[in-house]
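Hi V.,

Quick status before I head out on leave. The structure for the redesign project is tokenized and pasted below; the design run finished overnight.
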């Protein structure tokens, strides 16, 4: 795992490209503490810079930027190609020879043999790449199928810069820091900025599964092209459903996951796993332990709040599997010490509060290991979220109720404070799987569902922190909201499929995987997600909904794979989710820090023209009248980000 940056200018350039690219890779040292490399072709106007975290082939033979054997291709590459051994054997059959045993050298040979597009199609892995074709004088920027690795691109006339993190682009030869108002509206609604948008007006994020080819930096950026499409995968899977028995499907998923985990155990440095004690991470660790001759090192973060704490569950799973387990408690005071670091680490605003434990568990694991496996992706692939159960049952019924009546009911429910709902005993039966202390939060979501216009709007309301972002104006409902377009489309026909497709295309890459990448790479830890092997994703779309969601319980088939290895009683419990007690922290240890941002002067300075609703939410949170922690956190994190990055 590494970090890279690059420059493409219109030659002849008066810039000192060597100086410029050296300055751009300096802020990426955390992504690659082991080595640094620069390659510049002044005549062509191209420069590539690299910071290396050595994982496979620790020798100089794995150093980047790397050149293909013929000299045609120059490459910087962040990630791993897990099937590079098989590709190497195929390429040796075509006469290729190799100096070392890195996957970088293999993928370069694959470009020589099959071309960039065909080589990428053969690769199993996570990656972001920048490839300079010296023969055609064109730059190709490629991002992996699921968007595990980031890739940002900035353009102004005559100049293109690109890199693994925004901080590299900001350090480039030129950078316009104007904010994209649509991106800000999307961020305040969803807590992240969905690709291809970026918080900066003149930057785009390469979408997952896309390649962008640039021949002339003087013109506008061309559109990126998809080489692997989740929409197409979903459509193909639904049209060709798995026809075997339940046991046949479980066997096939077991085989695919076993292979995916096994490939991700390739490492020349120490390796472990992030274990929450939930179904996803427990399944990954169980498969790891089967393939290991020694106890797997596992790591967990717990909380001083029982409604959020999973440490005891993880400890039971670890004991059952025989792992070498370490856990650590995250307190409100720990959070207070961490939050000032977040704007530097997350150089595009991200307000998923689980960024705090993700950062801390990465720090914990990095004490012992350089690579860790995680269980990310299980909920999105196999229907694990409570909102899938709720949405499948409730949203179509709500949609049949006349809209005026729905809105009247929603208005009446909103008059009851959130804390009052929490205090009413027995309401957990209304919102299944919800702790009593969080019922009010869920009831609040229900009122927005009732007031929504379409099923797509209803589901988006469940995902939204700010239903109507306070800065949005005419950007509040944009025509490019991918969530809404997927959810209100005619296909897939099943609402459950549309909900999962929307999450896989937006929430997964732009929130969960972005959070995981920045938090782990901030401490030079490579995290691998075997559940998001693209072959597992493709198989998941072939499964009928009943193999994912059965009897009101999600991830049915993944649970069966786990139950073969861990007693059901150890892992069977209501879903908690990987979150933090953000409301309590904002009323306690984080209050003074938050207060410094939440006043009229600071809110207007942040470009939020009507701060009234924000201040009302803050007062309601402090008084315990509403569970507004997440929406307030989004505002604060934007302001903290802006103070650091938008000079």
């Amino acid at each position: 795992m590494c970090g890279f940056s690059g420059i493409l200018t219109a030659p002849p350039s008066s810039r000192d490209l060597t100086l410029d690219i050296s300055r751009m890779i300096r802020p990426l040292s955390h992504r690659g503490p082991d080595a640094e490399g620069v390659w510049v072709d002044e005549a062509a106007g191209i420069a590539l810079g690299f910071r290396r975290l050595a994982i496979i082939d620790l020798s100089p033979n794995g150093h980047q930027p790397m050149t293909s054997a013929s000299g045609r291709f120059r490459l910087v590459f962040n990630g791993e190609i897990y099937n590079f051994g098989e590709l190497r054997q195929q390429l040796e059959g075509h006469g290729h020879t190799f100096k070392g045993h890195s996957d970088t050298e293999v993928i370069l040979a694959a470009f020589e043999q099959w071309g960039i597009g065909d080589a990428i199609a053969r690769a199993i892995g996570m990656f972001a790449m920048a490839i300079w074709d010296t023969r055609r004088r064109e730059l190709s920027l490629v991002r992996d199928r699921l968007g595990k690795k980031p890739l940002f691109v900035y353009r102004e006339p005559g100049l293109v810069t690109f890199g693994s993190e925004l901080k590299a682009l900001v350090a480039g030869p030129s950078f316009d820091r104007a904010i994209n108002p649509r991106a800000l509206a999307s961020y305040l609604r969803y807590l992240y900025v969905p690709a291809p948008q970026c918080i900066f007006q003149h930057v785009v994020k390469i979408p997952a599964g896309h390649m962008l080819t640039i021949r002339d930096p003087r013109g506008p950026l061309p559109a990126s092209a998809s080489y692997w499409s989740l929409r197409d995968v979903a459509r193909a899977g639904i049209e060709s459903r798995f026809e075997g028995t339940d046991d046949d499907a479980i066997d096939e998923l077991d085989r695919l996951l076993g292979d995916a985990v096994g490939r991700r155990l390739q490492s020349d440095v120490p390796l472990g796993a992030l274990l929450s004690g939930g179904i996803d991470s427990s399944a990954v660790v169980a498969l790891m332990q089967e393939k290991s001759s020694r106890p797997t090192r596992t790591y967990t973060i717990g909380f001083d709040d029982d409604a959020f704490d999973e440490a005891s569950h993880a400890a039971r799973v670890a004991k059952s599997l025989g792992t070498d387990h370490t856990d650590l408690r995250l307190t409100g005071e720990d959070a207070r010490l961490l939050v000032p670091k977040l704007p530097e680490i997350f150089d595009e605003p991200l307000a998923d509060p689980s960024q705090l434990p993700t950062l801390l568990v990465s720090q914990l694991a990095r004490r012992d290991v350089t690579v860790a496996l995680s269980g990310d992706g299980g909920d999105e692939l196999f229907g694990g979220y409570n909102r899938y159960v709720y949405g499948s049952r409730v949203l179509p019924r709500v949609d049949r109720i006349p809209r005026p009546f729905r809105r009247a009911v929603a208005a009446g429910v909103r008059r009851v404070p959130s804390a009052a709902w929490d205090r009413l005993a027995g309401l957990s039966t209304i919102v299944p799987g919800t702790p009593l202390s969080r019922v009010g939060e869920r009831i609040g979501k229900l009122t927005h569902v009732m007031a929504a216009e379409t099923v797509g709007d209803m589901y988006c309301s469940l995902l939204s922190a700010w239903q109507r972002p306070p800065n949005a104006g005419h950007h509040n409902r944009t025509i490019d909201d991918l969530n809404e377009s997927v959810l209100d489309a005619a296909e897939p026909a099943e609402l459950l499929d549309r909900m999962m497709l929307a999450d896989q295309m937006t929430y997964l890459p732009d929130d969960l995987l972005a959070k995981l990448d920045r938090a782990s790479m901030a401490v030079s830890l490579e995290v691998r997600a075997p559940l998001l092997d693209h072959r597992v994703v493709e198989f998941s779309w072939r499964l009928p909904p009943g193999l994912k969601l059965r009897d009101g319980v999600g991830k049915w088939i993944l649970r069966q794979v786990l139950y073969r290895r861990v007693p059901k009683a150890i892992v069977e419990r209501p879903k908690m989710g990987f979150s933090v007690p953000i409301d309590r922290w904002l009323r306690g240890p984080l209050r003074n820090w938050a207060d410094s941002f939440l006043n009229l002067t600071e809110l207007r300075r942040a470009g939020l023209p009507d701060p009234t609703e924000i201040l009302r939410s803050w007062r309601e949170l402090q008084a315990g009248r509403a569970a507004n922690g997440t929406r307030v956190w989004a505002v604060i994190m934007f302001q903290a980000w802006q103070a650091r990055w938008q000079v």
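Above is the designed sequence. Residues 276 and 507 are 20 Å apart (CA to CA).

G. will cover questions while I'm gone.

Best,
W.
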